[in-house]
């Protein structure tokens, strides 16, 4: 049976270290029979002595707690023998974090595969012990009420496959990693029982929380097997290049390995290393995106030269006999998991590599999506088999962007939201939308309480709740710049309420890559519903709402800068209920970057394209009923655009309108309508102001801005007109 090992040792939990850890350790065996009697002040883990409670005849004696171990299960003797998990829960009880700070440090880009190899040297030293769980100290203390995440390793069995992700995941989850010792020969069914026992204990401890199983390659088969055997437990499976496709692998590793002379086995780790991963992407994991190419190359060269000598440890991680055993184990694991796919009821997210030279992961991802009842797929075309060790992938970001992170049985995109980290901010706005933002170079203005218009966001309240009401430009192109400006200048997270289709199967069917729509969810977008708006305002958030919605963002020819709003004052009473400050704003610039060549009416006249548009509309959800007027139109389509030499985006945030203390007054329909019309008028005035003033901007054209940057770099922004 497995043993449970929980401690706080940096940088990794050392299972066989001869040094005493700096913090307390708790270790328990789940095997049967009596345990060795230890002294009153120490316990022994794999031959190492640590300070701890007494243990006698299988019972842990810890003061007056009354806890005993019976038949491998920790029992609370003072509470009618209630079942308690043997995994240490101290971290959760001591956790003081309720919320993460905006742009927090997730440690992404500070570790490489070399850190994994260095950690593996310590953890693989043979001790004759069984498979066991450990908690990486780098994970630290999680947020309050965080769910448990169990990592199930690939063929290496080390359990450090999340080494590049420990710090980030440790904030959102209680992370446990399974370690399978090098010379352990536990069968697949035995490993399934070990994981299953832990899952059931965790479920008994917190029945309303989901349990996450992150399985890499072989570990994915293990996760599927456990899920199939426990359909009533709330599980979320994250499967990374699942080895359920092992029988279709193009690389016959087992015959090659069995025929390989013993003298050549030392060369085998290098071959496997290059087959299973992309060494260049592994070496780039800690290289800053914005570094000049020369410095990037120097850092890459340094990382590669440091990495190659460490690869030899692979022959110690998986000796020839162990590798042969585990390949046979993998064959049985794939067969076991595939035969039980029909029984899997859990949520599943499959992450598949495009350059996997070991397994046909892309095809397998599509097969699993069609075979499993609740499965999403994300495809990473440039990554190899060991994608968790490579550059360009942040596991927590993927979990958030696919709406898989939750702390209870039901997903709540408001209360379960984790603010973006600094690395997510840089990736989203420098790498994903960086060129677009550079081309449009937003100029932002706001209005002070005295009516004066100033450059920047000084006129926007720092304290929420704040409700931004504005014009939705063509295809919502202004959103990326708006959210970015608030994060950079005011360190404020603007939560946008978006069309429900952004969160529906329509988006899942159109793309399986991690896309801009996923990044919008990472940045806090939620479906536009009354309950979500209620929750956001009650949390004093800064909320972005477009009354014109989809109809305004997908307007027809000749409707640029026309407000297409409903007749009813939908948002006024909600704002007054929470005393929110309404900030009307206008934005212009869509006609400076593209010309609308084909609108909905044009597309419906073109064969094939009209069928595509009708298919989209048939799948689209309706946000408003027809009584709302023209704005209720559900003409969902992708407009045809002719690009222009980019001009510039302009934003003007109007004078804040305070609703605090106006709740009773705005319950009167006429008063609410008057305020609604006032907000609409302010948005129209802001648009008119910007359309006029942009003619005075000497840097409206990208050509002029490029010349300016060439002379005045590295100034962070390009000036615009004087307000």
UniProtKB/TrEMBL annotation:
InterPro entries, alphabetized: AB_hydrolase_fold, DAGAT, Hydrolase_4
GO molecular function ontology, one term from the record: diacylglycerol O-acyltransferase activity
CDD domains xref list:
LPLAT_MGAT-like
Pfam families found in the cross-reference section: DAGAT, Hydrolase_4
Task: Report the record's Gene Ontology biological process terms.
Answer: triglyceride biosynthetic process
Gene Ontology cellular-component terms for this entry are: membrane
Domain Serine aminopeptidase S33, residue spans: 195-390
- Which keywords label this protein? Acyltransferase, Transferase
Q: Which PANTHER family match?
A: MONOACYLGLYCEROL_DIACYLGLYCEROL O-ACYLTRANSFERASE (PTHR22753:SF14), TRANSMEMBRANE PROTEIN 68 (PTHR22753)
| Family to which this protein belongs | Belongs to the diacylglycerol acyltransferase family.
Question: What's this protein's name?
Answer: Serine aminopeptidase S33 domain-containing protein
- Organism of this sequence: Populus trichocarpa
Lineage of the organism:
Eukaryota, Viridiplantae, Streptophyta, Embryophyta, Tracheophyta
């Amino acid at each position: 049976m497995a043993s449970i090992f929980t401690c706080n040792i940096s940088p990794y939990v050392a299972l066989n270290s001869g040094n005493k850890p700096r913090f307390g350790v708790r270790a328990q065996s789940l095997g049967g029979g009596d345990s060795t009697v230890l002294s009153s002040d120490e316990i022994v883990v794999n031959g190492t002595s640590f300070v701890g409670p007494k243990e006698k005849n299988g019972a842990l004696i810890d003061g007056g707690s009354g806890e005993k171990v019976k038949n491998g299960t920790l029992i609370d003797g003072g509470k009618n023998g209630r079942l308690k998990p043997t995994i240490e829960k101290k971290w959760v009880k001591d956790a003081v974090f309720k919320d993460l700070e905006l742009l927090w440090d997730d440690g992404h880009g500070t570790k490489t595969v070399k850190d994994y190899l260095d950690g593996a040297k310590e953890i693989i030293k043979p001790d004759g012990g069984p498979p066991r769980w450990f908690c990486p100290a780098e994970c630290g203390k999680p947020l309050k009420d965080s769910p448990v995440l169990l990592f199930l390793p690939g063929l290496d069995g080390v359990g450090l496959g999340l080494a590049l992700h420990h710090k980030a995941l440790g904030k959102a989850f209680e992370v446990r990693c399974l370690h399978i010792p090098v010379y352990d020969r536990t069968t697949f069914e035995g490993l399934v029982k070990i994981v299953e026992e832990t899952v059931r204990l965790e479920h008994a401890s917190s029945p309303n929380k989901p349990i996450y199983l992150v399985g890499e390659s072989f570990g994915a088969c293990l996760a599927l097997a456990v899920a199939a055997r426990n359909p009533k437990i709330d599980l979320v499976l994250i499967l990374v290049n699942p080895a359920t496709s092992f029988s279709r692998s193009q690389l016959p590793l087992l015959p090659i390995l069995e025929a390989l002379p013993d003298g050549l086995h030392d060369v085998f780790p290098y071959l496997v290393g290059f087959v299973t991963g992309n060494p260049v992407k592994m070496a780039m994991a800690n290289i800053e995106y914005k570094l000049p190419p020369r410095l990037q190359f120097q850092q890459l060269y340094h990382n590669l030269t440091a990495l190659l000598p460490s690869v030899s440890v692979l022959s110690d991680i998986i000796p020839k006999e162990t590798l042969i055993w585990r390949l046979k184990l993998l064959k049985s694991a794939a067969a076991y998991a595939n035969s039980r796919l029909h029984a899997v009821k859990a949520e599943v997210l499959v992450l598949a590599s495009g350059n996997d030279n070991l397994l046909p992961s892309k095809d397998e991802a599509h097969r699993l999506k069609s075979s499993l009842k609740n499965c999403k797929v994300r495809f990473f075309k440039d990554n190899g088999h060991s994608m968790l060790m490579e550059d360009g992938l942040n596991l927590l970001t993927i979990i958030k962007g696919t709406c898989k992170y939750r702390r209870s049985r039901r997903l709540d995109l408001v209360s379960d939201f984790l603010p973006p980290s600094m690395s997510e901010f840089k990736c989203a706005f420098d790498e994903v939308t960086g060129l677009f933002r550079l081309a449009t170079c937003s100029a932002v203005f706001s209005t002070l309480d005295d009516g004066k218009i100033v450059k920047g966001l000084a006129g926007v309240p720092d304290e929420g709740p704040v409700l931004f009401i504005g014009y939705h430009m063509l295809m919502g192109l202004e959103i990326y710049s708006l959210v970015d400006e608030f994060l950079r200048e005011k360190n404020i997270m603007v939560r946008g309420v978006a069309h429900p289709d952004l969160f529906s199967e329509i988006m899942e069917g159109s793309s399986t890559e991690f896309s801009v729509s996923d990044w919008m969810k990472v940045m806090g977008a939620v479906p536009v519903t009354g309950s979500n708006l209620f929750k956001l305002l009650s949390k004093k958030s800064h909320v972005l709402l477009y009354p014109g919605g989809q109809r305004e963002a997908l307007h027809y020819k000749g409707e640029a800068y026309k407000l297409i709003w409903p007749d009813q004052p939908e948002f006024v009473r909600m704002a007054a209920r929470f005393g929110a400050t309404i900030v009307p704003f206008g934005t212009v610039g869509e006609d400076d970057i593209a010309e609308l060549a084909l609108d909905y009416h044009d597309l419906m006249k073109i064969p094939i394209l009209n069928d595509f548009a009708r298919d989209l509309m048939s799948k689209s959800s309706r946000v408003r009923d027809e009584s709302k007027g023209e704005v209720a139109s559900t003409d969902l389509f992708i407009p045809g655009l002719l690009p222009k030499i980019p001009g510039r985006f302009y934003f003007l945030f109007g004078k804040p309108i305070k609703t605090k203390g106006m709740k009773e007054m705005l319950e009167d329909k006429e008063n609410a309508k008057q305020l609604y019309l006032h907000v609409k008028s302010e948005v129209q005035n802001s648009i008119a102001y910007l359309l006029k003033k942009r003619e005075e901007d000497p840097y409206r054209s990208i050509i002029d801005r490029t010349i300016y940057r060439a002379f005045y770099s590295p100034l962070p922004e390009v000036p615009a007109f004087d307000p």
